[in-house]
DNA sequence: GTGGTCTCCTA
DNA sequence: GTAGGAGACCACA
């Protein structure tokens, strides 16, 4: 080794674990030997070898070694017997792969280094030191922070997965200190995965700051007395020895004896035949092909190597008969039409068909040219059915770029059309002279594909079937295609099986439930966390398996689920309440709502200032620095250190510190709890709203939420990323956030909301004469209730009496319990029980309704809204009393909440058409359960308000004619706060 | 990094 | 007492 030489040291053990976790469990096809980690390892190593052959980069290695840990006990265990004591044994299916991976390294003709009693890190440290001494450079291929201490002149760390090279500046950026202080930093912080203790309460941020202030660990420990923060000071003093021990544990040994001298690590030209023989034996076809191409060796000429593996695990045999086994009764093409005359028969036959289904990934097509695409889509013209699914590079349909589309025309007949795939090697490939096409194969140009797809996706004679179609609809909408007509398996499932106990209506879940098949998960394809990579950079063959399978599964689900709609009388729910709402919501999401960034940032500033003041006061009152955001620490301060009374415990056995508890303490005259309450409120508003909302804004200053149509049991929508259905309104400070929701120049925001819709629906369903009368007369319903219950005249009623009645009214809707009402009103449970009894005496119809609903739910297993939406409560017959009671309350609430949800859905579905017909340009932007927000041109506000109110008020008609009026308040203003 | 717990925002 | 989503913290890998 001499000046100018370059040593690559691969942290092999870390590599193995990354490869293992990055890839789905894979087995060798012929004998079931687990080879997932081997495969990942070989791919990574090959990429590295390939990169290093590229001399143009100027970092090509002259020396190369792969370093492994040899055993679990090292000299560090003599220093500290707990070192790495919390490590668990490697996964069972990984163990047999260790030996194979060493074989792999030898097949690559690379030195494979390990030594008893030392960790790979020590070997790496020693080789690094020697190489630098000899005048060479070193690249350590790893991202382990334990190795950061080695970074310095001539030494960098290379994170291959992220394609990142770390020098001293990058280490500083990541950890706040330069590499030479990494050891001290690690000694302070400790390492949970290696069981290095460190100093309690010191994290990376604090450690970096301390080292910055005091220079090094020893100085810091000697001068610990000077530290202001009490807890920090105490810990540094108490745990000084522990820090010194930690330092010795994390310090790498760079002078260990080496069995293989540095100069023997000279890099050889890989022996193509040896490598290919090994890869063939492993049955890594793709990598074999790639290696063969690069090294110019014909893979078919090379004989497969004999790999000795002890006791390969044999997987279950595929049943070759399964595919040809006759489908269940009635599923045959001959029998089906006859049986299908009755919906229930069709349901049965389709169930049989689904149960007999088998999936063959290798049968899926990858379509790479226009002609093939046209041919495939022509099959849909024949059948009239086309399942389709889009793959994009982002989770949200509003941001995602189209990467590919997949189709299925009949069970098992599916294809994937890659459109926006890129090289799996990312930027590294810019340096090679191979074009993307040469590397990953041809793709149809996006515009060409869209031109072919448009007439099909818009063809009224072809039913497009999707799963969560709002996503695909939006993606295509952004490419100028309006998908129609369509069916949505998620929405069908939701209409059929909305249930409190079933978890959801996602495709994977439905597939397992109805097809008995677990599809390839997105994680399997693209990995997760740090190993995640964009789908566009995944191997197209694998994406085909994944994406075409999704379309195939969707089509099969559609075949099983659709007949049930008619058979179970739920077609109208699906056709009238679900399907037509999807495009409406898609358009609302696409529009987004305009937000004033300045207002939010001003609020953030104001909140931050108050927050800072409060933090100082809190520390003062507590007598020490602590994190007021940690309920655990707060509980210890309040009830432990300060010894305040009235502590309650939560489920987790900790002190409860919610607002109620804190307010009780405040009422007793303690100053700290009220400061905490105030701090929490500000932190919440700042952290959840004013700081976060700007991150969701697009270039035009608009926020696009995403509505989920199938994630509540009752039929309500939910909103996420961001959730715009929980923007504060209760407090003045919170309401200020709503002033940031604005309309652009020349327009106003209109908010229209139903007044007391759930109580009105309750009055109608339970048929309560007094309530109905009060609504007809337009009285104050809570005051009326109070008057009935407590005999207090409405005129001059004390606000507290009305407040109680209001709480009871809400309680009824929620399936009242004495416990809950007592909690809400902060009164004894006996008193709450008394109120409830009196309520039932005054309004006996309510009790009848509740009893009847419970009985219905027990008998049928579900309850229904006025529009026929069903919500299932299988657990209402649970032997567990509290679970039963919970289901009873939910069953009482669901028809009320669900009917209200149905009503506003109907209004939304009709709204666009009505506005259109009236020649109004108002655009619906948001829904918040009983409120709709519109953007309206200034000069149309006057005409829009009454129309919107009318559509909303008349939404139940003609299907349901409520015996109470629905009242809608509509208002226009410059921002949401003023319009509400 | 992931998942659970706690807290808090809405109708 | 109903129905949601989300951020922060913390223990576990």
Describe the structure.
The structure is a single chain. It is built from 41 helices and 23 strands. The N and C termini lie far apart (76 Å). Strand 5 and strand 6 (164-166) form a beta hairpin. With 980 residues, the chain is of the alpha/beta class. The model is unreliable at 309-341 (pLDDT under 50). The strands form six sheets. The chain has a six-stranded mixed beta sheet. Among the domains are: 6-168 and 253-264, 5'-nuclease (Rossmann fold, 3-Layer(aba) Sandwich); 351-568, 2-Layer Sandwich (Nucleotidyltransferase, domain 5). The structure holds a DNA duplex (11 and 13 nucleotides).
CATH class of the domain at 351-568: Alpha Beta
Estimate the mean pLDDT confidence.
88
**If helices are DSSP runs of H or I spanning 4 or more residues, what is the number of helices?**
41
* CATH topology heading of the domain at 351-568: Nucleotidyltransferase, domain 5
Low-confidence stretches: 309-341
Tertiary shape: globular
Taken as a percent bin, the fraction of beta residues is: 5-15%
Rg over alpha carbons:
34 Å
- Can you count the beta strands? 23
